[in-house]
UniProtKB/TrEMBL annotation:
EC numbers, comma separated: 2.7.11.1
UniProt entry tagged with the keyword Heme: no
Domain Protein kinase: 1-369
Any one biological process term the GO annotation gives: spliceosomal complex assembly
Name by which UniProt lists this protein: non-specific serine/threonine protein kinase
UniProt enzyme class: transferase
GO-annotated molecular function: ATP binding; protein serine/threonine kinase activity
Segment forming the signal sequence: none
Catalytic activity from the UniProt record: L-threonyl-[protein] + ATP = O-phospho-L-threonyl-[protein] + ADP + H(+); L-seryl-[protein] + ATP = O-phospho-L-seryl-[protein] + ADP + H(+)
Provenance organism: Metarhizium acridum (strain CQMa 102)
Length: 376
């Protein structure tokens, strides 16, 4: 359990090795890593030749809701952390972190720099990583996990402690050359940036689209155990039992997979769930009813919150109108058997009762998802 004393606004960092070609464990140097130990990879980053963005223009992490600069550690290209991790390029950002490509001697890693308000998530990620590593036996999914490897602390510019973690590489990583190209691009074509008085905000290097297995990482919001309560999941990907404050389990992941499959394949959101520009549960549920039909009685009996939206017979009573749509009307990319298989898959996954959703094992045997594998 995390105590109050351990949550004194640390800003947090997590690093993930990117390349299977290099050793997956960090080197134990037994002390300070001197500059000459990195001489083979030490690069001088250009001080000119990059686009200087206007100070009034909001970019990258500045665009996230409720952005506060002091929550984000001001990483600088070329900066070295814990005497071993040298920043070589920016890869991305989110509401709670920025992500950077870095080197540990000859290894390329990604460094996730979290904000000052996410210490609980990072502590949880450490705990989940330890739990997953302790599980005995072999599982085909083990190879696509990135788990915590190293953690350390440094002082931040606002007098705070910053926790850093490094995560191990998996054997199914993309070709190492992808990340080497990103590093080389930063050297030859420096990323645009905005120089402020207390920090420089860099534009992320574009990530190329690659083939291969996906990687599971970022376990900050993961939970250990079978059942839980509480609000989890990104807004439009929330399962109905989460929205209604019911007990939930691993089947919420199956739900989010179904929504994600649709969003990625159709190139747009299945659920918008917004009213007046704000995430709205009533709108979200109305959209679910339009696509899935009304929930069964046993679902309505699991939470008193259901009375806000349905009567005792399961009729919709909320003020938000139910949209006139269906999965068939929304799907516009496929025809024939392919369309039939996709709609069957989505209907199988997106159902009110979590116990009726397929398992992960069921999904890897699904004809639509596995058709390219079967063809090969």
């Amino acid at each position: 359990m995390v105590t109050a004393s351990s949550l004194l606004s640390p800003s947090l960092r997590i690093a993930y090795p990117c390349m299977a070609r290099f050793p997956s464990l960090l080197l134990n140097c037994g002390g300070v890593l001197y500059p000459r130990a990195m001489s083979s990879n030490a690069r001088t980053f250009p001080a000119v030749g990059f686009e200087k963005l206007p100070l009034h223009m909001k970019i990258e992490e500045e665009t996230v809701p409720d952005y506060k600069a002091e929550r984000f550690y001001p990483v600088v290209l070329g900066e070295i952390f814990n005497s071993r991790y040298r920043i070589v390029a920016k890869l991305g950002f989110g509401t709670a972190s920025t992500v950077w490509l870095c080197r540990d001697l000859r290894n390329l890693l990604t460094l996730k720099v979290c904000t000052t308000q996410k210490s609980a998530n990072v502590n949880n990620e450490l705990a989940v990583s330890r739990h997953l590593r302790s599980v005995e036996g072999e599982h085909p999914g083990r190879g696509i996990l990135r788990l915590t490897l190293d953690d350390f602390q440094v002082a931040g510019p606002h007098g705070l402690d910053f926790l850093h973690q490094a995560n191990v590489v998996h054997t199914g990583s993309p070709d190492a050359s992808i990340f080497q190209k990103i590093e080389q691009t930063e050297l030859e074509h420096p990323s645009a940036r905005k120089a402020l008085s207390d920090r420089t905000i860099y534009v992320s290097q574009p990530m190329p689209i690659t083939a291969g297995l996906p990687t599971l990482c970022d376990f900050g919001a993961a939970r250990i155990g079978e059942t839980h309560f509480g609000d989890v999941m990104p807004g439009v990907y929330r399962a109905p039992e989460v929205i209604m404050g019911m007990e939930w389990g691993s089947k919420i992941d199956i739900w989010s997979i179904g929504v994600m499959i649709w969003d990625l394949f159709e190139g747009g959101r299945l659920f918008h769930a917004m009213k007046d520009g704000v995430l709205n549960d009533e709108q979200h549920l109305a959209e679910m009813v339009s696509l899935m039909g009304p929930p069964p009685q046993c679902f309505l009996e699991k939470s008193e919150k259901c009375q806000q939206y349905w009567d005792a017979e399961g009729n919709w009573i909320a003020s938000t109108p139910i949209p006139l749509q269906s999965f068939e009307s929304r799907e516009c990319r496929l025809e024939g058997k392919d369309k039939e298989q996709l709609l069957c898959l989505i209907r199988t996954i997106l159902c009110w009762l979590p116990e009726e959703r397929p398992s992960a094992q069921d999904l890897i045997e699904n004809e639509f998802l596995m058709q390219h594998t079967l063809e090969d």
